[in-house]
Write a structure and sequence with these properties.
Length: about 300
């Protein structure tokens, strides 16, 4: 007869009314968290724009090279007699380049996540593997990415593999460390409970360790999202004539400084958007499957 192993918090079956009330409360909490996040981002962007403008004025920066938020706005939306391209053409060009960069970033992002999750689980399930390879991973982490990228390029050549490795390195290390820490943060009482019911290490991983590690996972994801984009742009800047990374080099050689600033603003906004999406997903997932699932904050 098969043994049913309870989760870390075995509770009595909730009534339909309790289930509905909890779902409504969780939904309200998620939307309230999303609203606060969006408001915070809008305020932060406004403050950043003001500081940007003030800094250029105080530093008396060269207006030919340094551009203000208003200059970037004009690049995207206002026709200029100094440019042969219309704002629509500018937007279309950068959107096309952004698509290439996001493709490269996605390769590195997915590769870094998959490899780090697998290795973190192996480190947790088989402790000798961690003792053998974690110091090596930390040693590799100390090597600057700018120094590691040419080596990756020489070994694998130009293409998706190199893009994935360069972007994956940025994602891999913080996720590996935080996930390993999260898997190890399981309470001993939960582990003992599962073992009493006949569970093994894999059962502990599925029932307790993964839910416990979710906050650590999403904390690393918030770092990994902009990191993967940075890795993709570094790959493009060093080795290709594609994407926003290469476009910065081209614009610099042609003294197209408005385009450079527009690319910087665009990639910053895109990184913030993906960071925010990650935060939204984190809020919803932790509310439903996290270690405090069912415990809705009333603040």
């Amino acid at each position: 007869m098969a043994t049913t192993v309870p989760g870390p918090r075995a509770t009595a079956r909730a009534t339909p009314s309790e289930t509905t009330a909890n779902a409504v409360a969780t939904t309200r909490y998620v939307f309230a968290r999303i609203g606060r996040t969006v408001l915070t981002i809008v305020i932060s962007l406004a403050i950043l724009g003001i500081l940007w403008t003030v800094a250029l004025k105080l530093l008396n920066a060269n207006t030919f090279i340094s551009k203000t938020p208003l200059d970037v706005f004009k690049y995207f939306f206002v026709q200029s007699t100094l440019s042969t391209m219309t704002p629509g053409q500018n937007r279309a060009t950068l959107a096309s380049l952004l698509g290439v960069t996001l493709h490269h970033a996605a390769i590195g992002f997915v590769a870094g996540i998959v490899v780090s999750v697998i290795i973190a689980m192996l480190f947790t399930l088989v402790r000798p593997i961690e003792f053998m390879f974690m110091p090596l991973a930390m040693l590799l982490r100390t090597v600057p990415l700018l120094a590691m990228a040419p080596v990756i390029y020489l070994v694998f050549g130009n293409g998706s593999v190199t893009a994935g490795l360069i972007g994956g390195v940025v994602v891999f290390f913080p996720l590996l460390v935080n996930l390993t820490l999260g898997f190890r943060s399981v309470s001993q009482q939960s582990v003992d409970l599962i073992r009493v019911y006949g569970g093994n290490r894999w059962t502990i991983m599925l029932k307790v360790a993964i839910p416990t590690a979710l906050p650590h996972f999403f904390a690393s994801m918030r770092i990994a999202v902009p990191g993967a984009i940075t890795g993709a742009m570094l790959y493009e800047w060093l080795f290709t004539l594609q994407g926003l990374g290469a476009a910065i080099t081209t614009a610099k050689t042609q003294s197209m400084y408005s385009e450079i600033w527009a690319i910087v603003v665009l990639i910053t906004v895109v990184s913030i958007v993906f960071y925010t999406i990650t935060t939204f997903i984190e809020t919803a997932v932790l509310a439903k499957w996290g270690p405090n699932a069912g415990k809705v904050t009333t603040k």
